[in-house]
Please model this.
Amino acid sequence: TIGRCDKITAIAARKKAIQILAQVSLGHDPMAVALEPAEVSTFADLAAEYVQRKGSEKSIKEEKRILEKEILSVLGDMPAEKVQRRTIAILIDKIRDRGRQVMANRTLGLIKRIYSFGISRDVIEENPARDVKSTREKSRDRVLTDKEI
Model:
């Protein structure tokens, strides 16, 4: 696959195909490069690989938004294996202190999924978010307006 039809033009796809065929004729394997694990050093690198490989079309937009708004400013430059449970707990507590319990839970869940992905890829050995507890979410009562009825 060269790219999605909504992301690349037919002309650009043809040019890319010619480049790939030239590499193959020289004995290079383009799939070997695509299947190589990415070098992961920071949390941002691990998160980028998670989004690229594990994110579903349905959730990718929201996960990117949470990463950019809540997580990367705090954890992005830190080495993935050096992030401590306390750092994650402080990040989640700051979100809760803003009155955003649901966002705190979504953020914590995303951090846990990113680290679980890293463990499954043998990038890291431990999930520091594992024992950080989420808060209980309260359901809201919603009343329809006259227009909605």
About this structure: The radius of gyration is 20 Å.
